[in-house]
Each structure stands twice: as structure tokens, then as C-alpha cells.
């Protein structure tokens, strides 16, 4: 079990692809809003639902515009 679920709402695949390429988080959900846009809040709720289903402690909401540095986001989950 991981302690977190990370979620990225996606409407522009090139941004999302670059974000995911820089990310080293292992429990990542990308919500594809390119065809049937659920909206940002509904996309976040998909991550929250997964958090509860997996009995994780945290939901990490990530914008597709984020580019992670060398730690790849792992510095967010080091506790």
C-alpha cells in the first residue's frame, strides 16, 4: 500500500506528457479530459475516491503544467 494517490487532470496532452515524464511518483492517475471533459474538481474527486479505495492517507493534486526537478516529486512524499 502507498500512503498517497496523485492525480493529474489532463486537457492538453503535450503538457501532461512532459509533467508525467518528469514525475517519479508511483501511484499516479491521469484523468483524460480531452474528449469528455469532466472538469477539474471532478477529476480531483477521482483521485480522492482512489485514495479512499486504496486506504491511502493523502491525495496529491498535480497540475499538468508542473515540471518536477531531479527528485521527481518524491520529495513531496518523504516523511
Description:
The longest helix has 15 residues, at 40-54. This protein has helices spanning 13-22, 40-54, and strands spanning 4-10, 28-32, 58-61. The two termini are 15 Å apart. Strand 1 (4-10), helix 1 (13-22) and strand 2 form a beta-alpha-beta unit. It has a 3-stranded parallel beta sheet with strand order 2-1-3, with helices on both faces. The mean pLDDT is 94. The protein is an alpha/beta fold.
Characteristic terms for this protein:
79 residues, alpha/beta, 3-stranded parallel beta sheet, flat
Radius of gyration: 12 Å
Q: SSE string, helix = H, strand = E?
A: EHEHE
Strand content: 15-25%
Terminal Cα span:
15 Å
Q: Which structural class is indicated by helix and strand composition?
A: alpha/beta
Q: Would you tell me the overall average pLDDT?
A: 94
Helical residues, percent = 25-40%
Strand order of the largest sheet: 2-1-3
Helical run tally: 2
Question: What can be said about the biggest beta sheet?
Answer: 3 strands, parallel
Task: Put the structure in a nutshell.
The chain has helices at residues 13-22, 40-54; strands at 4-10, 28-32, 58-61. The chain starts with a strand and ends in an 18-residue tail after the last strand.
Write the layout of secondary structure elements.
Blueprint: E1 4-10, H1 13-22, E2 28-32, H2 40-54, E3 58-61
Amino acid at each position: 500500500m502507498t500512503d498517497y494517490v496523485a492525480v493529474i487532470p489532463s486537457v492538453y496532452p503535450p503538457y501532461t506528457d512532459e509533467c508525467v515524464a518528469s514525475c517519479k511518483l508511483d501511484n499516479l492517475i491521469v484523468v483524460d479530459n480531452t474528449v469528455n471533459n469532466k472538469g477539474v474538481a471532478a477529476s480531483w474527486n477521482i483521485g480522492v475516491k482512489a485514495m479512499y479505495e486504496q486506504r491511502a492517507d493523502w491525495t496529491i493534486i498535480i497540475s499538468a503544467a508542473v515540471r518536477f526537478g531531479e527528485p521527481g516529486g518524491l520529495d513531496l512524499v518523504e516523511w
